[in-house]
Batch of 2 targets.
Target 1
Amino acid sequence: MNILLTGASGFIGQNLADALTAAGHHVVPISRRDGVDFSTMQTADRWLPRLRDVDAVINAVGIIGETGSQRFRVLHAAAPTALFDACLGAGVARVIQISALGADDSAFSSYHQSKKAADDHLRQLELDWFVLRPSLIFGRGGTSAATLLRLARLPVLPVIGDGRQMLQPVHVGDVVATVMACLTAQDTRRTLDIVGNETVAYVEWLQRLRLAQGRNRALVLRTPVRLAMLGAWLGQALNPMLRPENIRMLVKGYHGDGTAWNEFLGRPAIAFSPALLDADAQQALALIGGQS
Ligand SMILES: NC(=O)c1ccc[n+]([C@@H]2O[C@H](COP(=O)([O-])OP(=O)(O)OC[C@H]3O[C@@H](n4cnc5c(N)ncnc54)[C@H](OP(=O)(O)O)[C@@H]3O)[C@@H](O)[C@H]2O)c1
C-alpha cells in the first residue's frame, strides 16, 4: 500500500515507518523534517495533491505543550480535520488517527480537547476510520519515556501529591501492531483505547524505571499538587511540557479499559520487562515471538 504517514519523524511515526517499510508498504512521510508544516495545511485543498495514489493515511502528529508557532488548535484539530476532509474528497477510505487516552467526554485540557475535536470530526465521516487512544507509551526514542527515565535516576524521586496516580503504560510495539492490524481489518469505524495490561502507581513506575537502570529504590519527595502546578506555570516558558494542564492530566492518571483493543488485536498488551525500555517496536514484537 501507499501510506501517507504524518508525524513520520516522531517517536511513534519512526517506529511505524520502520514497520510499514519492513512489511513492504511505501511510506510518504509528512513532518517539518520532511518539509511540510501542519500550520500551512489547514484546508483540504492543501492536502489533495499529496493524496494522489495514496491508499491509507495515518496521522501521528502531536505536541504536548504549545509554543508561539506550535498551537494545539492547529496541529491537533485544524490540519488533521482538513486532511480527513481531503481523504473523503480524494477517495482515500482508510484513515488511522493516533489520538490519546483521555480525549473523550471527560477531557478538560486543551491537549485532549483539541485531539477530541479531530477525532469527532473523523468519526462522522463516511470513511473506514480508526481512532486509537494510547496511554503513556514507553520504548526507545520516546521523549516522555526518556524524561521519566531521567527523573527515575535522580537521588530522590519527585512525585506529585502522594504519587499514587494510576498509569497503564504501553509499549510502542503495541501501538505499531495495532496500526498494522487497522490497515487490513474489516471491522472498521472503531475507537480503541490502547492500555498496558497492568495498572501501576506513578511512584511505582518511577521506582521500576530506576531498578531497570541498575539503581536501588529511592526515597520519594512529595510535592503538593498546587505547588507542582505553580512550578509548572512558572517553568512553562522554559519547557512547553511544563504546563499546569499537564500536571492536572497526570493527577487524573492514564488508565482505561483495554478489553475491546485486546479483542481487536487478539492478544493482551506486551507484558513489561526492563529490556523493553530500550527496545523499539520491531524488537519488542520479536521478543513476544510474532504474536503481533
Ligand atoms: N508518546 C506518548 O506517550 C503518547 C501517548 C499517547 C498519545 N500520543 C500521541 O501520539 C502522537 C505522536 O506522539 P509522539 O510521541 O510520536 O510525538 P513526537 O515524538 O513528539 O512526534 C511528533 C511528530 O509530530 C511532528 N510535528 C510536530 N509539529 C509539526 C508541525 N508543525 N507540522 C508537521 N509535523 C509536526 C513532528 O515532526 P517535526 O518536528 O519534524 O515537524 C513529529 O514527527 C501525538 O499526537 C501524541 O499526542 C503519544
Target 2
Amino acid sequence: MSEALPAPLTSEQMRSGIPAVDRYLDTGYATVPGMSSRFAAAVCCGLLRIQHELEVAGPVVEIGPFEGRFFIALAHALQKGEIALGIDLFDWPNPEVKDRFEANCAKHGVPAERRIVWKADSRTMTPAELLAKLGGKPARFIHIDGEHSRAALTKDLELATAALSPEGIIVLDDMLHPGYPTLMVAVQDYLGRHPEMCVLCIIDRETVVAATKFVLCRTEWFKRYEEKLLEAYKANVWPLGADFEPHWCLVLSLDTRLAKIT
Ligand SMILES: C[S@@+](CC[C@H](N)C(=O)[O-])C[C@H]1O[C@@H](n2cnc3c(N)ncnc32)[C@H](O)[C@@H]1O
C-alpha cells in the first residue's frame, strides 16, 4: 500500500530559515506593492541561506525591483559585507516609484549602505558596467523581473550570466505565465546556447499575478543545491518533477496533488 504524502506547507508556513527574512515575510511583505509570491520569496531566500551554508558569497541583484517587495526580502538575507543592487527604469507607473522604493527599503529595515539603487535600462547595459557597479564582484544571485519580451529576457539572461559567479543562481519571474508565452522560448534558446547552465527548480505560481519562477544554476552545482532544497522543502515537492528533455528538475508547489486515476 502506498504511503499518504504529507500535506504541503501553505505559503504562510513557508520559511527561508533566516530570521530577518522570515520576520519581513510575516509582517511586511504583503504590505509592499509587488508581483512576486511570498512562497517564491521564502524559497529564494532559503536558497540564499543554502548558499551561505555552502560558503557561496557575493552581491545580490534584482532587475526590476519596482517598489521593493522582493528586493527587501533578498536584502535581509545578505551576509556581512554583501550588498543588494536594484536596477530599474523607475518610470512606471510614474517617476515617484523610485522614492517609494527607497521609502519601503528604509521602512522595512534595509539601510542605505546595504543597497545600491541604479536607475538604468538593463537592455543597454554591458556586463562590464554591471560588474563595475558591484565593485568587480560577480553576483551570487540575480533575479530577472524587468521587461517581459523575448528580446529583453534574452538580453537580461546574457547580462546576468556574464555577471554571475560560477556558483551563482539566476531566478526568472513570470515563467509559464499565460500573458507571456514567448518567454519560455527565450529560456529554451538560452539553455541551448549555454549547456553549462540548467534549471535547478521550478517554483510554481501562487496566483496569476504572483507567477511561476524558474531557478537556474551551473550544471556542476545542480546536485549540491538540489539536495539542500529537497531537505528544506520536502513537503512542497510535486512528485513528478519537470522534464526539460533530457534534464529533470524539482517542482516546488503549494499544491502537490496528482491527477486521480481509477
Ligand atoms: C513586474 S515589475 C517587478 C516586480 C517586482 N520584481 C516584484 O517582485 O514585486 C517590473 C519592473 O521592471 C522594470 N523594468 C522594465 N523594463 C526594464 C528595463 N529595460 N530595465 C530596467 N528595469 C526595467 C519596470 O520599471 C518595473 O518596475
